[in-house]
Amino acid sequence: MSLLTADYNYTLPDELIARHPAERRDESRMLVLHRAEQRIEHRWFRDFPGYLREGDVVVLNDTRVIPARVFSDDGKIELLFLEAVAGKSSTHGAVWKCLVKPGRKMRIGAEVCVGGEVGRVIALEPEGERLIAFERSPDLEKFGELPLPPYFGRSPEGADAERYQTVFAREPGAVAAPTAGLHFTPDLLSKIPHTFVTLHVGVGTFRPVQVDDITEHRMHSERFTVSEATAAAVNAARRAVAIGTTTARVLESCGRPLVAQSGTTNIFIHPPYTPRAVDMLLTNFHLPKSTLLMLVSAFAGREFVLRAYEEAIRGRYRFYSYGDCMLIV
């Protein structure tokens, strides 16, 4: 167990970053980590149902990525619309929390026009976001694009509109996909017991840990919802199988027995945390020194996880959002 950020590092060859999706969602490879025996096996994602037992429930995040990346009408300002701010007093009709580039042009009082709608910066947030008030919300569906991860190194292409969403995405609000869910097809879902939570993935998922001691890192908050049906399904289950770190964060924030609720969470899961709600975890491979790699290490142990990552690199697995996956059992 280590609390040093430097101890959650590994070296990834650039060519192993999956910058485009596989031809089919369910043809990804799956590295399986058996915690009890400290054993690793190489499988395919299509083998996933074989690891389920009677009484298990698979829990997925049904958030939908919004086309949140927009340029001002004059092309001088890039904005990432993070979330609509409810209850913010303003003479305008809609207030959005946004990341902007370049920030020096967007101080308090500065105006920006997006899709014909004029917005004014009314506040600067501690993390650098701007609160921008519009008379009417810009039409993101018309003027925005999907905010692909920066490590893709490219702009959205035609296939991304479908493939950077899960097949069960239904609650708009995320600025990044819950990527472990990208492997599922409607056919596979129809064969396994499953339920949904909603957690709107924020931009913090890409923010690096910038402190040496991970206990000093402050996590971003993300909005989540757990329905009555989901709470009942999870509480009745023998084991809860979380699909992705976002689902794991919801379940671990709420604990079991699970209670229907809506709220925000900034839970930071890292060793020596002991999971209390999630029994199995399916996840993609994560960036070095990231909070997500630390979360996975809390589930399977840092040394075992890093050994598995070395094995995946030797085996030429595809990494990150459009990459292969890992199942922790």
Secondary-structure topology with pairs:
Layout: E1 29-34, E2 39-44, E3 56-61, E4 63-65, E5 69-71, E6 78-84, E7 94-101, E8 111-114, E9 117-124, E10 130-134, H1 140-143, H2 160-163, E11 171-174, H3 186-189, E12 194-199, E13 222-226, H4 228-236, E14 239-243, H5 245-254, E15 261-265, E16 280-284, H6 291-300, H7 302-314, E17 325-328
Question: In a few lines, what is going on in this structure?
Answer:
It is built from 7 helices and 17 strands. With 329 residues, the chain is of the alpha/beta class. A hairpin with a 5-residue loop joins β9 and β10.
Description:
By secondary structure, the protein is of the alpha/beta class. It folds into two domains: 5-65 and 148-328, QueA-like (3-Layer(aba) Sandwich), CATH 3.40.1780; 69-143, QueA-like (Thrombin, subunit H, Beta Barrel), CATH 2.40.10. Helix content is 16%, strand content 27%. The chain contains seven helices and 17 strands. The strands form three sheets. It has a nine-stranded mixed β-sheet with strand order 2-1-17-16-14-3-12-13-15, with helices on one face. A hairpin with a 4-residue loop joins strand 1 and strand 2 (39-44). It is globular, with a radius of gyration of 20 Å. The chain starts with 28 loop residues before the first strand and ends with a strand. The mean pLDDT is 95.
